[in-house]
# Entry
Amino acid sequence: MSGRRYSPAMALVARHAARFLADQVRYWFRTGSWWIPVGIVVLAIASVLAATAQVVVPHTVYVLF
Amino acid sequence: MPAAGGPVLGVSADYHDAAAALVVDGRIVAAAEEERFSRRKHDPALPLQAMRWCLEAAGVAPGDLAAVAYHGKPLTTYERVLRSHALAGPRSLPNLTRAIRSWTGRKLWVGYRLERALRDLGHRCPSVTFVEHHLGHAASAFYPSPYDAATILTFDGVGEWATTSIGRGEGAALDLLAELAYPDSLGLLYSAMTAFCGFEVNDGEAKLMGLAPYGSPTYREVIGRELIHLRPDGGFELGRRWFDFESGGPMLRPGVAALFDGPALATGADPTTREADLARSIQDVLEEAVLGVALAAHRRTGDRRAVLAGGVALNCVANRALLDRGPFDELWVQPASSDAGGALGSALWHHHVVAGQPRVLDGCGDGMRGAALGPAFDREEVRAWLTDGGVHFQEGSVEEVDAATVADLEAGRIVGWFQGAMELGPRALGNRSILADPRNPDAVRRINAAIKRREGFRPLAPAVLAEQAKELFDLDQESPYMLFTAPVLGAEPVERGTLASDRSSMAELLGSVVSPLPACTHVDGSARVQTVDPDRFGRFHALLRAFAERTGCPALVNTSFNRAGEPIVRTPADALRCAIDAGLDAVVIGSARIDRSELDRLAAAGRR
# Structure
């Protein structure tokens, strides 16, 4: 049985996504301000959803984006 | 593993004037704006073609790239966008949604996009260093300058938060000492006035500067009272009630109509006396603000020399004012002061500060090599391209080509001049230029109206032999990158009372200035001078020398080889197409001269 293999492109995306989240956490600790990193992550997730899974995204997201 | 001090790729993208630059052992070996490849002026896209060219031109093998430095910190900039829109309230919502789409869809992921692009080019991408925007500008000003130590001044619209910064460089060390933050910005103020006067932001600022000498400082007091408050300590604050940077509409609120005798001029409409007066007024205020910052910087550093970068540093009139009235004896201005220069500044900063490599001054000029850092085409390439394309041309030695070109210019012809490596930055400095005889007053009208098809009030600039510059201009220091104005000796400024009331009469005035160089003297008797020395501009210097020997005039009109709205030409094909479209009298590409009859034949044959 062979395990699922990830392509280099997926690894690249995963690495940058992890770095992005780490940057948000660092920002939170550095500034003490939580709403900016939380807002950025929420908006990023909403953008990904709006672009890839349109059926499950609430109508407000379409309005916003 | 690449050695410390190995190739560093600098990249600027996503705002305007995207560019790539490659630094090897502290030397800038290649740099180019993406617009020259994509043919889209001020192209903000990730500079894939410029990156590819830089890596190929420098012969960087896969795996050899030591570092990638990006000009700016996207996350901090996004934070500023979100905070400023949140504070602006509901009116900013439409623009905020556009901004969020742009940021979350593209700008936030620039590290990923760079790594993927480099992998597509066959290179391993080391981790990307994000260099603070004004630090990138500061590095672009200091490291290539000829000074071992200097005060650094940067002015632009906005980076992450900073809009203006004061710093100091010494050896390889560079520190920013103070900064002013958004929205207090000279760049944004000037851009807001640019838009109010009917010009495009990020393109029309130079036009506003060129319009100023036609006007009177009628609105100077009201601008100084309402739009910007200059503090005694050198800082300044914008009058926020008059500005709106968040709604995505005009940057000046409609209420300013009461201050400026009417609403904003529609974009592209002909400027009138009011716009000229506004241009003059904001120019005066800008100079005062820059002087204030410079004095504050000098109080902190005590330096005799200063270096400048950032979009506002392209204002050569303000640079001259700083030279004349400021606290510094010498100034050096980065020729690619806009964001394009940030690419090379970021790469240099990484090399000297992150990699800890020393800075070595060679004692002969600056590190910009005449800004000739872009693509070049050798004699064989040009010959093969022209021959394959069925273009008839005359070829000769340098002396023969220069003699033919001098004869053309003396006869009043306007010549496209394409030599060596393309320049980085908005100025053509003798490698991608349109040239004319500066003694011919008709040249300015013909170049503006028929060749470049741009506003008739815009002046042309002279290039002069450096060793004879003082015979023609009141200029105490060199100006190799056309970044200082200077009074033309013997020129008579037009009396203010006779200044024009509309654009056509402004154009008439421009060509009728009494001056030894009427084609490139502005109505105030000044010119934006390029001093041409043989070390940095060898080929162009030879042509100027030949022209001077034949005519006694050591200067030529030098304007960029492009037409309004187009980037400067990059390749021989761009040059030939532009020459045909513009109706140039001749074009010289390397050692090949193509005359008007051949250009007409090519035009008739549909070769564009």
